[in-house]
Amino acid sequence: MAIAINIYYYGKNGSARKFAEEMTNSGIVEEIRAEKGNIKYEYFLPMNDTETVLLIDCWQDQEALDQHHASTMMNRILELRLKYGLSMKVERYVIDEKGIPETDRKFIKE
Hints:
Largest sheet: 4 strands, antiparallel
Shape: globular
CATH class: Alpha Beta
Number of domains: 1
Number of strands: 4
Order of helices and strands: EHHEEHHEH
Helix content: 25-40%
Structural class: alpha+beta
Strand content: 25-35%
Radius of gyration: 15 Å
Low-confidence stretches: none
CATH topology: Alpha-Beta Plaits
């Protein structure tokens, strides 16, 4: 059962974007993507809110996510969150293993 987590990072004066840039430039993002069980780790910038960054973080199962949370890398992430004074909102979803139903496929152009 795959898990998708949307994390909205909120800050002031561009701090959320600076956080995402440092996460990427420092190599932490690539390290996370290389972890066993990581499916996706990608930042997005909302068009209507310059003080928010959305992280879409997906893992193959709870065990992989637990191992990520237990890693020393989490301390580095927490330090950067503190450095940039960020707040967060988190949404968690279980990915439908059946995929996209045929009734929805007619609306998708691949």
